[in-house]
Please model this.
Amino acid sequence: MVTIYLTVFAILALTGFFAGHRRAIAVAGGNTRALHSLPTYHGMYTLATVVIPMLIVLLVGFPLVNMLAGQSAISHFPADLQADALKRAATMRDIVNLAGGRSMASVTGELQRAAASYSNVLNIGNWIVVGLGLLAGVGAIFLATGRISLTFRARNNFEKFVLAVLIACSAVAILTTIGIVASVVLETYRFFFDPAIKGKPGISEFLFGLDWNPQAAMRAEQGNIQTAYGFVPLLVGTLLITLIAMAVAVPIGLLSAIYLSEYAGPRVRAFAKPALEILAGIPTVVLGFFAALVIAPSIKGFGESIGLSVASESALAAGLVMGMMIIPFISSLSDDVINAVPQSLRDGSYAMGATKSETMKLVILPAALPGIVSAVILAFSRAVGETMIVVMAAGLAANLTFNPLAAVTTITVQIKTILVGDQEFDSAKTLAAFALGFVLFFVTLILNYIALRVVQKYREQYD
Amino acid sequence: MTDMSFQGPAPAVARQATESADIFKKRIQQRYRAETRFKWYGIIAISFSIAFIALLFVSIFATGLPAFTQHFLVMDVPLKAESIDPSGKRELKELASADYFGVAGEALRDKFPEVTNRRDRTRLVQLLSNGAADPLRAKVLGEPGSIGSTAKLGLPLSANADIYFKGGVTGIDKIAGRGVLTPSGTTGDISLTSSSNEFSSRLVVIKRDIAERARQLRREADRIESSGATAAQVQQLREEARVLQGRFDAVSGAEALDDRMPSMLVAVNGGIIKLTRIDNATATGEVLRPLSSASEARPGSWEVLTLTTPESNRKVTDKEVVWLEALKSQGQIERRFNWGFFTAGDSREPELAGIRGAITGSFLMLIVTLALCVPIGVMAAIYLEEFAPKNWITDIIEVNINNLAAVPSIVFGLLGLAVFLNFFNMPRSAPFVGGLVMALLVLPTIIIAARAAIKAVPPSIREGALGVGASHQQAVFHHVLPLAMPGIMTGTIIGMAHALGETAPLLMIGMIAFIVDVPTSFTDAATVLPVQIYLWSDLPELAFKAKTAAAIIVLLVFLFVMNGMAIYLRKRFERRW
Model:
């Protein structure tokens, strides 16, 4: 049905363009120079007047019809089923499947009637929407061509429309943020405060609990097992892996940047810079596979050969590979910062007889420090939010430990573990993932803000 | 210092001068050393990164390249009418549903008439992949007239047999016999007697191995004793250790070979015997391939094969090794390029699994992403760079875009799950939804790149257009935008490459399901290449490890091409003003 509508849409839009174009030429009597705007703009103006109402009908009409059809179908069922969100959703799925002609295992008379009324309402409603759209489009063409005259400012009007489109496109970024905030905040609110959710923890229990075991919490509805949504082990695990990553990435990334910007000749640079860019472009799922295939077994093998017990999914392996992922990030950001330090500072230092390394350590690095600190903070926030490497190389069990050779789990791993596969949207377990997402989103937001402030506050102005 | 030279060469001063010169020399040397050290830190850091990349590529390619080829059994298969078309009507429907795997299996069994044991016959047939039925079916359906004749066909081997031929199962040491070997029979359990001490060196290794096992058992016994196990358990371990130690101590005693030791096979008189018990010069064993005769074998005409991986540690048994080697020696095993990897969808069986479904899914998803984020991103960039008034709303939009670029990708997955799937009731696992999420994810990248490209166009272009009477929008759309296009394209390709490699948000919206069919529309359930990699990497079968690495190679090739394109565009069209 949407396809039919879109076809009608396209035809009417084109018709609108040509109608406006011809009408303008007709009004000018062939002498287009008498017009305020070029005939093309009259055509575009007419097209724009068609697009706006038809788009509105499309975006409002079909979802509305869908909703009405769903309501009319569900009204065939008793009120207690309608009140239960979970059963209601399941029934709706059955109705849609049945109406879509897919075979079902057990079909009750109720379901049959509901499906019939669903497809009935949907069918009629969709045709009404198409009719409305057609009406709106044709009406718009007549309205717009009616306005065309020698003095009509078609270009200015069309440009207003274009500007509105441009603004709408910029607003998509805002809408995305609103969408993210709304989804994590709403679900997190339900996780903590919705009375309909069973087995949920209190806020302090979540923030300070030392046990994380969402599986046990699922069973709590049947048995009598304590709910376990303690956030601390995840935080410790995330921090442990991130700190290992930073311990690898900060020195290597920074030293690489220093070497490339101050010491390396053009040949080394031509080779090493693309190499770091390649590292930056490798998908994290590849790094995760590499961590699990090569790094983790060799760390385990090495550890055991010197008599240490190493988990096969040790935090060290995940942290090391994550550190490698972060290196290009730190090195390219520090490179920019180091290059931004004015040459005059360098020259002054060399004139005093300082060597390159002394200049670097005593002059350039202090001058570039705010930028470097901000780069490190950004890298930290990226490491906290990284998912695939830890999913593939870190563990699932939430151990509260600082031992880098043990298996730990992270926030992102738990989000992924909980949300992959079929999930019921109203269980505490699913909502817990959103609460973790909330934490993740705001932690990265705050880190980014701090990084920005560090640069703003401590940056030296040289010009 | 300068004062001193005026005072003339007084001895004390001169001494002082040389002393301080020494000190300075030392200090300078120190400083130069520090300088060199510092430089080396940089070199080490860079080398570390490059070594890591090299290790990454080498290990991925070494693991993945074998998966691009596959071993086939090329053999004459009799297309017997009674098993393919029992009714004799040549109806397509009946022909299509015939048991072709059974036909192929029968043909293989006929090649090994000595295999009579029911379990062994099953194992023999299982050397073929389930996909072995496909070439047969294609042949019969293509030419129904061929029923009743014999067709020479290449049948894919099972994943384990394939890995065996790629050398991933066991190494084989071959040692020619030094003495004259006399077998006691041609089939069943026989004994072999050699005129020299053929097996003594092996026997020593085995004895040493037994001693080591005994030592381990004793250590284990001590360990569980101290950690509070029952006395009976400890006693049992000690007893086992004692028996093993006894076997070791009996220096000349014969030893039984078990499946925890490397297997020994003897190839003599055209047959193969698996040794079960060896002594210095004699051995007993089970005949796996019948010998042509029980006559004496001259030195050098027979050999001892040692399969270095113990039988219990591998997926291919000794018998299967013997069968596979027999087929290979008859020239019936062929290594071919694995086209199926590119033409098949996912499968539970590694030798049949392909990436076509995943590539199609990635392609569909990228089309949606491209169609959404390029127009939106470019228009947003145009607005922000050219038309936006400088006010707090614009500031918010800008800060917001920079923030979005730093939001973890998994959070976009949460957005997709909560908003697109649950609120708008869009289908799970659909490339359309994946494309939507990816569009939002790469939008900041594209906006930032497009803004930089637009900013790089010099104001004189814009002003020239305005000067001859163009409206602001005409100046932007007719003059600035075309000049900014190469930069925008570069940014777009890099954004697409990012979207192609991204995994985490797609897991959230259910693109992780096991899907065999190749998707044909934007709303079909599908998976994408990186998710396929993740799915395969989780599977326990050894063969999937190679498949995973092979899929990674394909992904990396795609990314390489895309980034190469971006670099080419940048080099070709970049203009300095």
Q: What stands out?
A: Residues 67-165 of chain B form one domain. The longest strand of chain B covers residues 69-78.
